[in-house]
Amino acid sequence: MYRYDTIDKEFVADRAAEFREQVQRRLAGEITEDQFKPIRLMNGLYLQLHAYMLRIAIPYGALTSKKLRKLAYVAQTYDKGYGHFTTRTNLQLHWIKLKDAPAILDHLAEVEMHAMQTSGNCIRNVTADPYAGATADELDDPRVWAETVRQWSTLHPEFSFLPRKFKIAVTAAAKDRTATKIYDIGLHLRRGRGGELGFEVLVGGGLGRTPHIGSTIREFLPTRHLLSYMEAILRVYNRHGRRDNIFKARIKILVASLGAEEFARQVEEEWAKGDPARIDLPDTELARIRAAFAQTYDTLPARSEALEAAKAADPAFARFVRRNVHPHKQPGYALVDVSLKVPGQTPGDMTSEQMELVAGLAERYSLDEVRVTYQQNLLLPHVKLDDVETVWRELDAAGLATPNIDLITDIIACPGLDYCALANARAIPIAQHIAERFAEPERAEAVGELNIKISGCINACGHHHVGHIGILGVDKKGEEFYQLTLGGTADDNAALGSMLGPALPAAKVAEAVEQMVEVYLRERQDGERFVDTFRRTGVAPFKEAVYADAH
Amino acid sequence: MRALTANRLDDGEAVFWKGGRWVERFVEAQLFEGSEDAENAEAAAKSQQTVVVDPYLIDVIPAGDVWAPLSYRERVRCLGPTNHPMHGKQAEGGHDIDALVHAEGAARSTGRVNLIKRK
Q1: For the domain that residue A88 is a member of, what is the CATH number?
Q2: What gap in Å lies between CA A297 and CA A384, rounded to an integer?
Q3: Does B12 contact chain A (CB < 8 Å)?
Q4: How large is the average pLDDT for residues A289-295?
Q5: Which residues of A touch B106 (CB under 8 A)?
Q6: Are A237 and A359 contained in the same domain?
Q7: Contact flag A428-B54 (C-beta cutoff 8 Å)
Q8: Which of B36, B39, B45, B43 is nearest to B17 (CA)?
């Protein structure tokens, strides 16, 4: 795990001290709300329906037990004892008082955390594959490159006032677990013909009001040139992005209007003008960053007799292993998903007690590492196969072992109108109602992989455009209604969903999902997932099932 | 009928105007029949920069024997999040809270008066 150097420590401490003074000046009336608002947003502090909300950055979703314990402490001391993990792998605390915010930032700084660049028109918290460093299917550890981007983009003076917010995701694996194609910049590590590592660079992905899947503007960028090429992209965007219209200000609109080819040409031209050596990291610095992520493992047999015996003895544990335990690159180890999706509960919410428990498990059983996934779950990345049963028992006792990863109850939902000042409709109760219908683990497993993603407004924090079933809350003549889309995916073959039909009232959504699942179970062939069946049959049978009684 | 609401500066709590001061429970909010009184109160509230953030008027409608904000969003502000019934103002309970929970006829996004500012 990367540790802050002196520069990191100093600027985070300085920023916390600066914000303390700014809050005091605001409370004393020395600065107005109009002056203060951009300052608090630069520190991740929003004003929402019931209180302030603090969005804490978790760079590339990586936590240690110490950091997770600190989050538990902050949530317990300054909030109502829980937090909400988001699709950007950040943690949101929804009951924060402005007067407490400086003390919270001091606490976070103690464990090398902050809330900078979780808001505003800057380069936001960078995300990466949650399996980083633990999976056999990666070419390199993406955290090395995500950390490089973090250092470069943090408080970058040239890119602190972009036309609009800017999000970067990195993956080094064949399977995209980071939704890179819906990012402003998505970086896919590839191996070139000569064996050299480089990035396929995608630009202009994004959801919101005008969803786009990212376009490849460079098939292969040698890794050593990552920062200079990113600078060129940001410069073209900074120069030509639409500052006059907030709805057209994201880079996706610029790329779409210029065309990916022309945008790429301008980036190459900009890149050629610069001196890459001025900005690209020297090998010594890359080696320093890389060394921070090195892990040492015990030499173990690939098969654990204890694990196999426990699976044979307990079907519930066997199901957990099927759904939540994944192969590790190191023999004798596994990645273990911690589900924050108990049917009937709030997706992504975690209590301070649960955070404490997972921190303890990480310390004892996962080489002190925890990851946050964009699906709003946690992950213990380095658990010995022999320890999986013990970890499961402890997770299960704390309500964290729902065996539902990627199943119909593993629903992404934004906070929606229950908390968010931007929302048009609630998202959480819709997720709860759907999950309750499929709460029986046998039933959820029989349905198989099915990603439901719910947003309470068009800003799409809940990624509804790329859900196998996407659900968007809208305000229709004064009532909460929900538009359903089908066939979206956020993986390697990312695609935007297409509309099912007219929006449904809140009370009809869970029933509609159940009707569509019945159609799928009737129509599916040869182990097809829901989304595969939908793509083969088209929308007609699903539409018929949901809207039949309206005919 | 209208009420005047804002979020309190130091803790973000949703609050309601009552004769020059701010109360936390909607049932205690001052209601304005005429637009002049409401707008005068709004202007006075806007000068309280160290007390509240972004004061604005909302429409209210009868809901049984109490008044309720017209918009569902404002009702959520008066109650708390629906996924955590023990969080927010709803945790205190009482007849007024029950009435708001069960109030019908919400128009969800139009409760804020003058939200769209025309030049």
Answers
A1: 3.90.480.20
A2: 9
A3: yes
A4: 96
A5: 478-479
A6: no
A7: no
A8: B45
For A175-213, b/e burial (b = at least 16 CB within 10 A) is: ebbbbbbbbbbbbbbbeeeeeebbbbbbbbbbbbeebbb
Residue in B108, B109, B115 to test binding to A, most A beta-carbons within 10 Å:
B108
Determine, for residues A432 and B83 on separate chains, whether the beta-carbon distance falls below 8 Å: yes
User: Given A372, A397, A422, which residue is the final one in a domain?
Assistant: A397
d(CA A531, nearest CA chain B) in Å: 29
Contact A417 B76 (CB under 8 A): yes
**A15, part of any domain:** yes
The pLDDT of residue A163 is 97
- ipTM entry: 0.92
Strand order from edge to edge, sheet including B66-69: B21-23, B14-18, B2-8, B52-63, B66-69
| Contact between chains at A428 and B77 (C-beta distance less than 8 A) | no
Contact criterion met (CB < 8 Å) for A418 and B10: no
Contacts of A26 in chain B (CB under 8 A): 9
Q: Does residue B117 register a pLDDT over 70? A: no
- The angle at the Cα of A100, spanning A105 to B85, to the nearest 5 degrees, equals 115
Are residues A204 and A62 located together in one domain of the fold? no
Is A443 domain-assigned? yes
**Are the beta carbons of B12 and A419 separated by less than 8 Å?**
no
- The DSSP letter of residue A118 is S
Question: Which amino acid is present at A222?
Answer: P
Please compute, for residue A283, the number of CA atoms within 13 A of its CA located in the half-sphere on the CB side: 1
Structurally, chain A folds into a number of domains equal to 4
Give the pLDDT confidence score for residue A476 in this predicted structure: 79
Of the candidates B12, B87, B110, the beta carbon closest to that of A98 is on: B12
Asked whether residue A82 is domain-assigned, the answer is yes
HSE-CB at A111 with a 13 A cutoff on CA atoms is: 20
The predicted model gives A523-535 an average pLDDT of 96
Tell me whether B53 touches chain A (CB under 8 Å). Answer: yes
Q: What is the pLDDT of residue B107?
A: 65
Closest CA to A84 of A325, A531, A415: A415
